[in-house]
Amino acid sequence: MMPQLTQDMHTGQTAPLSTEREFSTIPRSNTDDEAVWEYPSPQQFYNALARKNMAAPEEYVDVMVDIHNFLNEGAWNEVLKWEARHKSECLVPRLARLQGRPRDLSPMARISSWIHGVRPFDRHDWYVDRCGKQVRYVIDYYEGVPEGDNPVFNLVVRPAIDDFGSLADRAKQLWDDAKEKYFK
User: Fold this and answer.
1) What one-character DSSP code corresponds to residue 85?
2) For the stretch 91-113, what's the b/e string if a residue is b when 16 or more beta carbons lie within 10 angstroms of its beta carbon?
3) What pLDDT digit, counting tens, does each position of 121-179 carry?
4) If we measure between CA atoms, which residue out of 173, 147, 145, 149 comes closest to residue 159?
5) What's the distance, Cα to Cα, between the start and end of the chain in Å?
6) Would you tell me the crossing angle of helices 42-51 and 61-83 to the nearest 10 degrees?
7) H-type helices in 3-144, by residue range?
8) Which residues pair with 133 in a beta bridge?
9) Of the candidates 75, 82, 101, which has an alpha carbon nearest to the alpha carbon of residue 153?
10) What does each C-alpha distance from 122 to 70, 131, 179 come to in angstroms?
11) How many whole angstroms separate alpha carbon 53 and alpha carbon 72?
């Protein structure tokens, strides 16, 4: 369950931030057919960061929220690519819940950091409702090489290996990627 995020100014905050929220395109589980997730307002985002002792300059919070929302939409699109393998089981997968785990490295991120020396700046576990079956996805968020003044981010999205089906999905995707690359 997502915590209730206050819209009140944080202690020590010097300038007010917007309390306007935006709707995502991500379908929400356990609700009516039209319900989607709602993104936090800049004020809620700032408060959440402050609660976690992650300082953020107030003047950048609006841009940080835009990037946050953009990355989540991108992550959902990647989840949908994986879920396309299961269209016969479920036409409309929905996000049931998510868990931020910024201090926990996924096994793949840990190995990648040993080899390449690069660690993700964030990790989320997303729990997708595949029409009654819960499937956990792991999302690692990496900073890319900036393009001019524009930041670049890379997402690594895959089903967590919590069951044989998720392992099989990852093996099939690995095979599909290899066919695409080497046998075109």
Assistant:
1) G
2) eebbbbbbeeeeeeebeebeebe
3) 889 999 999 999 999 999 999 988 889 988 899 999 999 999 999 999 999 999 999 99
4) 173
5) 45
6) 90
7) 42-51, 61-83, 107-116
8) 130
9) 75
10) 15, 28, 31
11) 22
**For 8-17, how does the pLDDT look when each residue is reduced to its tens digit (9 = 90+)?**
888 878 888 9
141 touches 155 (CB < 8 A): yes
For the record, the structure tokens of 17 come out as 């931030």
Task: Count Cβ atoms below 10 Å from residue 25 Cβ, excluding itself.
Answer: 10
Residues 126 and 79: beta-carbon distance below 8 Å = yes
b/e per residue, 40-56, with b = 16+ CB within 10 A?
Answer: bbbbbbbbbeeeeeeee
